[in-house]
């Protein structure tokens, strides 16, 4: 019987071979799981999100019960951190919501067009900290205090034999404004004051990328999770997408790759129109992670010779399907995708996924 450290080494090497488009002994399975683990372990979501450490323990207990898979996307549930990424409040179970209700972004116009001038004059970081503390009422000291335990939470998984796929997470800068302005008002800004919006995004991008370089070097991260989901092709005209989305995805991905890490592109929604743009990244240095809204066979045709594909078992199938249906879907994907494929759910496993369906997904990957 292999030790947990032998399993961790074996699983980590398997995943990195898949990313490098090399043949593996079996298809790697990475679990993108958070709220599902609470339901799986019979823990109320209010208790699950009470701290990052609480979610880490529940997720690890859930992983041990699910058994033999390669790793988890993250070491804790990020729900309470969403204001730092989307510049808007989040409603939490046990606080604004009933105890066992999934957390929700409370998106509305919190950033005004006058704030654009403040960002241009004072910079992004001073504005962001003041905005989060004083306008959204976020307790940053508490959140950063919990994040200081990230290494220990990662180690908890590694000690059990599971890799944590992407401990370092960032988003594309348009997400900050589309969340803080609200998506409809942000889109209107792109038509009414495009030059000012671009100037603001350039300021945010410069500061964010400087920080990201420091984080990659400090943590020696081999993988960075980049989430540009609200920038999907289906939400923008080609002209707006190239100017206000692709420019910043490309810039962020280039920084990550220059620093020696692989970029995991978390691509919720439909990106089919612009798939060819992603061929510009070096071979074997990026992962295209789909939630099934983009046809994974079109991703394979456009990018399969350039980057690893990760996905895309639909949430509906995990929640409403049968184990046989899930197993059949996954085994077909594994056969059709070939080398350079990582099996996972389409975005997070939903909280109401059936445990037997999640185990069927794992079984399809591991062959057990």
TrEMBL record:
The cross-references to InterPro entries, in alphabetical order and at most eight, read:
Methanogen_methyltrans (IPR052024), UROD/MetE-like_sf (IPR038071), Uroporphyrinogen_deCOase (IPR000257)
The Uroporphyrinogen decarboxylase (URO-D) domain extends over: 172-364
One record GO biological process: porphyrin-containing compound biosynthetic process
- Entry-linked Pfam families: URO-D
Query: Gene3D superfamilies under this entry?
Result: 3.20.20.210
Q: Which domain of life is it from?
A: Bacteria
MF terms in GO: uroporphyrinogen decarboxylase activity
Annotated PANTHER family:
METHYLCOBAMIDE:COM METHYLTRANSFERASE MTBA
Annotated protein name in UniProt: Putative uroporphyrinogen-III decarboxylase-like protein
Query: From which source organism is this entry?
Result: Acetonema longum DSM 6540
